[in-house]
Amino acid sequence: MRGPHNIIRLIRTGATLERTGAMKVVLDAFEAPRLLRIVVRGLVWPFQWLGYRGDPAMPSATRALTALGPAYIKFGQVLSTRPDVVGDLLAAQLRILQDKLPPFPIDRAKEEFERETGLRVDQVFSEFSEPVAAASIAQVHRARVADTGEDVAVKVLRPGIERAFQRDIDAFFLAAQAIELLSPASRRLRPLDVITHFAGVVAGELDLRLESSAASEFAANTAGDAGFRLPEVKWNLSGRRVLTATWAEGVPLGDNAALDAAGHDRKALAARVMQLFLSHALRDGFFHGDMHQGNLKVAANGDLVAYDFGIMGHIDAYTRRVYAEILYGFIRRDYQRVAEVHFEAGYVPADRDVDEFARALRAVGEPIFGMDATRISMGRLLNYLFEVTERFGMRTRTELILLQRTMVVVEGVARSLDPAINIWEVARPIVEGYIKDSIGPKAVLADLTRTIRVLARFGPRLPQVVERVLREQANPPQITEPDRLWPALGWMAAGGALTGLAALAGWLLLL
């Protein structure tokens, strides 16, 4: 039944897209050829009556996906982070998706909690509220722990959401296969890869243990950040379908009037939001990937409180260094160095001209630096930068797309608090500090120390490695051949050197 069900679901999806006017936006985003547009719209048009109407007040794409349900809303949210795939117009519409759906009954939430934790709600909590927020995947209740009187947020997955998502993901894969078959030009956008990425994101969000783990790791990384804190996960009250954490009390960051009434310094908050995000991305390589006003509050003492860790970004140490050098080069307006970093990292093919690339980067940076502080935008710079690097053959890097999207969001948050904020002046100390710590002499020493530790750990295995190589080389008729003998001797020399380094490492680590 899965095949026919998928076809029926896709027919309804197409009908809804056509009925809401979103079909043209989608076909434009994927640069569908004229023949495909005629065929698709000709097939879908007679079935418009099967489509959902949606909310006419919303943009067409947002209206269609909201009407189609949770999986489509989440898919739209994921695609909003990939303007390289869907184009700027569709990505802009998808960013304003409202993740608000009718809540499911409180009794079902209590049943899910008890089934997941094995604990009775009326024994654990003295209070358990109606839903305070309902999203595409889960809803949140405010509760009070009976023993301690502590207020907590209890996040519960929607009943049957896993099955519903799997059904729609199967339909998405069928649609992607059809798109690649009917439109060869769309293959450069890798529709199947996009659906595979989406399936992975959803799989993570449908297991709240992973979100709990992300919150715990993020809290450990940021424990020393002044003016920033996270809710504490209550592991004994959490599981795969339930996440319980301390209640985030405070003024919503998007309510400027309430912030002013509470006496908070909005200029200081704007700078702190931007600097904290850059610190998390560069220093830790682990950042909040959905850092908008709805996920941030200001506590009574002025601390920023972040919550909802379903989308987190990760950047490896090498990419962080490259990214920091690129930002630092732009801050210093050293376009030659920015170009060289791209080539050194292998982001731009080596057969391109580095000087020509540097001139293209200057054309990106100089107009922005000529603006007044209220118009300088790091997000705009990154957008232009990706346009230039694409022309020079740079492949899209997914983790940098998420970073770019999050930086645009964070910059918007900062400007909503302080329209006159100078993004570059705020970013400079964080980027300069990271450059100093990650590329200077201390960083070189730290890299050497980590290398020595690895050698020390694997040192006892080196003799066996060398012995195995020698045995493989010990073929009497060929052992005297130079092309077999020299590699063996090389392995012996390398093994001896590595063993010596391992011994030295062990000695140094004991000092």
Question: How would you summarize what this structure contains?
Answer:
This protein is of the alpha+beta class.
How would you describe this structure to a colleague?
By secondary structure, this protein is of the alpha+beta class. It has four domains: 2-99 and 162-204, no CATH class; 105-157 and 207-247, Phosphorylase Kinase, domain 1; 250-439, no CATH class; 442-510. Helices cover 61% and strands 9% of the residues. It has 22 helices and ten strands. The chain has helices at 2-20, 22-29, 34-44, 60-68, 70-79, 83-95, 106-117, 121-124, 161-182, 191-205, 208-221, 256-261, 266-284, 317-332, 335-344, 354-369, 378-391, 398-417, 423-439, 441-458, 462-473, 482-510, and strands spanning 125-134, 138-145, 151-157, 228-229, 242-246, 251-252, 286-288, 296-298, 304-306, 312-314. The protein has a four-stranded antiparallel sheet with strand order 1-2-3-5. A four-stranded mixed sheet has the order 4-9-8-6, with helices on one face. Strands 7-10 form a two-stranded antiparallel sheet. Strand 8 and strand 9 (304-306) form a beta hairpin. It is globular. It starts with a helix and ends with a helix. Mean pLDDT is 79; it is low at 491-511.
